[in-house]
Amino acid sequence: MYQLFCDSNCELWHTTVAELGLNVIRMPYTLDDKEYFYDMGEHTDFKAFFDRMRAGSVPKTSALNEYAYTEYFEPVLERGEDIYYVTFSHKMSATFNAMDAAIAKLKEKYPERRIMTKDAKTISLGSGFVTYYAALKYREGASMEELDAYLDELIPHTATYFAVEDLTYLHRGGRISSATKIVGGLLGIKPILYFDEEGKIVSIAKAKGFKNALSKLTEYMREKGSELDKYKVFILHADSEKPAQEFAEKLRNEFGADVVVQSVGPVIGAHCGPGTIGLIFHCSQR
Question: What global pTM score does this model have?
C-alpha cells in the first residue's frame, strides 16, 4: 500500500484535496514579516493578500528544509506504507535539493520502503491538473508503477499558459529585464508565458492589452487542445474573478468544456502578482 502526496503549489482547492484523500506538503510564504503555510484556500483571504501587494507589500517565498520533508514522510514509512509524490516543477525551486537529501536518508533508514517522485514540470493548477488525474488513478487502485507510467503520458500533454497584468512582479523575480518592464508598462504590453517540456517558464508571445492577451490564450487552446471532453479545463486568477469568470463562460460556449475557475494562492501569487490569469488544459503537445 502507498500514500499519494502533492504539495500546496499544485493549488487544488481544499475540498478537492479532502475528497481525493491527498497528503499535502504545505509551502511557506512570508507577508509583512509573518510566515504562513498555504492551506489550499480553506482560510486564506485572497483579496487581502493581493490588496497588500498592490499597496506595496513584498511577499516572499522560501524552500522547505530537509527536516520538514522528513516530518511529512517518516510517519507514513513507519506505518509500513510507501510514498508516491507528485511535485511542482523542479526547475522552479531549490526545495527539491532538501527533498532529495531527506529521501536518501529515509531510504537508508527504511530500506524495505519505496519513495517515488514525479516532476509535473509545471506549477499552480498545471501541477494541480496532473495531481487531480493522478489521484483519480490512485483511487481506482493503480499500482505505483501503473501510476508512474500514466503520468509519463499525461505530463507532456498538460498545457499551462498565463498572462500577467503588471510586469513589476515578473521583473522582481528576474523573469524579465528592466527595459522590458518599462517599455511594456508604457505600451500596455501583456506578456504571455507557458511551461515548456523541461518545466521552465518561457515567454511565448506579447499582447497589447489584457483582452487581447485572453484572446491569445484562447487561440492556444483552439490550436493545441485535445480530448477537452474528457479532461477538465482550469482557469486561475489573482484577484481578477470577474474577467476570469467571463473568460470561462466563453470557453464553455466554444469548447463545451468542464471549466473550473479558482484563485491563485499566495505562494504563486507572490511571483505573478495581482491580475494574472492562467489557463490549463489537455493538449496535443506542450
Answer: 0.94
User: What is the CATH number assigned to the segment(s) 2-154?
Assistant: 3.40.50.10170
CATH of 157-282, one of 3.40.50.300, 3.40.50.1820, 3.30.1180.10, 3.30.930.10: 3.30.1180.10
Report residue 204 as a C-alpha cell: 511565448
**Distance (Å, rounded) from C-alpha 73 to C-alpha 224?**
38
Q: What is the pLDDT of residues 206-243, one digit of tens each?
A: 898 889 999 999 999 999 999 999 999 999 999 999 99
